[in-house]
Specification:
42% of the residues lie in helices and 12% in strands. The protein is an alpha/beta fold. The protein has helices at 13-24, 53-60, 79-96, 113-116, 144-159, 182-196, 206-210, 218-230, 249-259, 274-278, 282-292, 299-302, 305-312, 323-328, 336-349, and strands at residues 4-8, 28-33, 44-47, 67-70, 105-109, 162-168, 171-172, 212-213, 216-217, 237-241, 247-248. Helix 1 (13-24) links the parallel strand 1 (4-8) and strand 2. The chain folds into two domains: 4-168, Rossmann fold; 176-214 and 246-319 and 336-350, no CATH class. InterPro entries: NAD(P)-bd_dom_sf (IPR036291), PRISE-like_Rossmann-fold (IPR055222).
């Protein structure tokens, strides 16, 4: 069977890594995004706005994918608006595909806010019990992940395809201009510290500094999505997905500092806003760009400090159980320090940060 994938959000961290993996496996891959100029030549570009049905209908005309992968989201001022906008994007894709009845499988990437709550109520109240397991019920809160799932489930019933939902923790991987990009944000922060003498202070909460946690390499996520879309055991299930190891930031932080040739600052015992620390550093970043001939002059196109603050500032422990997918046959694993170091090497090779030895 010839596999034809439509990756919605192909320019993001998840979408890029998934599309590249599918191409490597011999799939024909269509990459849907509003801006397609950065897509590699191995991916067939599809320029369209998932919130604009007329744009989408024109973009998808003539396409008959066997699989559709939703790897994007849009941020609005309130969670109620998030619920409407993000579910509408998925509904629009199914309603504008020429032959949705030809679909074999649909995948949706959400995340741990399924268990922690939306940005408006993120990790507030009594902390959820860890490790997070897929059998945990939905929270009694508005959450756009739930709305996205419901649209996917409805379309699967209507058009007769199988589905999977994938719930990563913080995704570490390569993408430029992404709304949620901790790895690149920390690379920019460490570079500023090295070049300007700013102390490399861990910006998160005492719980995150001292407690166990995990992250998800974008390549690990891509592997699980491909496995679930290809394996009968993965059909019609929701799966957590993390690297498979756990760590404490008080151990990893000095490791990250060492890559950049700097010392990790003494943890102050409380959260310190990274967004605040990077505020006003645009001129410093421009000077670094000019000094090393880097590619991106706009600091906040690389660094999403607001999201890193949200992730690292949580007062709750975050440990994710992957037993379900392992029992079903997925055996992927990534060593977390390598997730960061591989990203730093790629950012350096691409001219977005200076090399580690400079």
């Amino acid at each position: 069977m010839s596999h034809r994938a439509l990756v919605v959000g192909a320019t993001g961290i998840v979408g890029q890594n998934l599309a590249n993996r599918l191409v490597a496996e011999g799939w024909t891959v269509y990459g849907l995004a509003r801006r397609i100029e950065n897509l590699p030549g191995t991916i067939i570009p599809v320029a369209g706005d998932a919130l604009d049905p007329s744009s989408l209908r024109q973009a998808l005309a003539g396409l008959e994918p066997t699989h559709v992968f939703f790897t994007t989201w849009t941020r609005r001022a309130t969670e109620k608006e998030n619920c409407v906008a993000n579910s509408t994007m998925i509904r629009n894709v199914f309603e504008t595909l020429p032959k949705p009845q030809s679909l074999v499988h649909g995948s949706l990437v959400t995340g741990l806010k399924h268990y922690l709550g939306p940005f408006e109520a993120y990790a507030q109240g009594a902390p959820p019990q860890t490790p997070f397991r897929e059998v945990m019920p939905r929270l009694d809160l508005e959450n756009f992940y739930y709305n996205q799932e419901d649209v996917l489930f409805e379309a699967a019933r209507k058009f007769g395809f199988s589905w999977t939902v994938h719930r990563p923790h913080t995704v570490i991987g390569y993408a430029i201009g992404n709304l949620m990009n901790m790895g690149t944000t920390l690379a920019v922060y460490a570079t500023l510290c090295r070049e300007t003498g700013l102390p490399f202070v861990f910006p998160g909460s005492p719980m995150q500094w001292n407690g166990l946690t995990d992250v998800t390499d974008a390549r690990q996520l891509a592997c699980q999505i491909l496995w679930a879309a290809s394996s009968p055991a993965g059909r019609n299930e929701a799966f957590n997905v993390v690297n498979g190891d756990v760590f404490r930031w008080n151990w990893l932080w000095p490791e990250l500092a060492a890559w950049f040739g700097i010392e990790a600052a003494t943890y102050p015992g409380h959260a310190t806003s990274l967004e605040g620390m990077l505020s006003g550093k645009e001129a410093d970043w421009t000077a670094i760009v000019e000094k090393y001939g880097l590619r991106e002059r706009t600091l906040h196109r690389l660094a999403s400090a607001w999201h890193t603050d949200a992730d690292l500032g949580r007062p709750a422990e975050c440990v994710t159980d992957m037993s379900k997918s392992r029992k079903f046959g997925f055996t992927g694993y990534r060593y977390t320090p390598d997730s960061f170091f591989d990203l730093f090497e790629r950012l350096s090779a691409g001219g977005y940060i200076p090399g580690r030895n400079r």
